[in-house]
C-alpha cells in the first residue's frame, strides 16, 4: 500500500502539481477575459471542489481546536472533523465561489452587499446537510447546548466564524482565478490562457 501511494504521489500528484503556475494579474481583468473571450483559464471545477473540501477539513480542525481551548481549556489543542465535512465544505465553497463571480464581477455588488447572501446560504447549507445526515445518525455536530440554536443544527454563536470564512472565500477565489493547469506557452505579464509547466 505504501508503495502504491508513493507511486501515485510521484507519478500523478507531483507531476500534475508541476504544471500549475501563478499568473499575476487583476482578478477583474482575468474574469473579463474569461467571460468575453471565452479563454480556458483557471483550475477545473473538480480540482477546485477538492481544494475547497480539503481546506474545509483544515478550517474545521483549526476552529474546533481553538474553540475547545477557549470553552474547555483544552490545552492539547485537539481538533476534529468528519469525512462528510469534505463534501459539505467542498460543495458549499464551490457554490459560494459561483455567487461571488456573478454578484461581484457581473453585477458589481460590494462586499457588504454580498455578505448577507453568503451567510444565508451557508446557514441553509449547514442546516440541510445536518438534517439529512441526522436521518442516518451520521450528523457529527449538535448545537443543542449552545444559545440561539435551531434544532441543534445551526447556531448564531458561530456567526462571526462564518462571516470571516465568507470573506476569506473571496480571497481564495481571486487567487485560484490566477492559477492555470495546462501545458503550453509561458505566462508573460499576467496574460491568461497561456501558462506552461513550472521549470525546476
TrEMBL record:
Gene Ontology CC annotation, any one: membrane
Keyword terms of this UniProt record: Membrane, Transmembrane, Transmembrane helix
Predominant localisation class: membrane
Annotated transmembrane regions: 42-63, 83-103, 115-136, 148-168
Localization (cell): Membrane
Keyword Metal-binding on entry: no
Keyword Transmembrane helix found: yes
Membrane topology: Multi-pass membrane protein
Protein family per UniProt: Belongs to the TMEM229 family.
Protein name per Swiss-Prot or TrEMBL: Transmembrane protein 229A
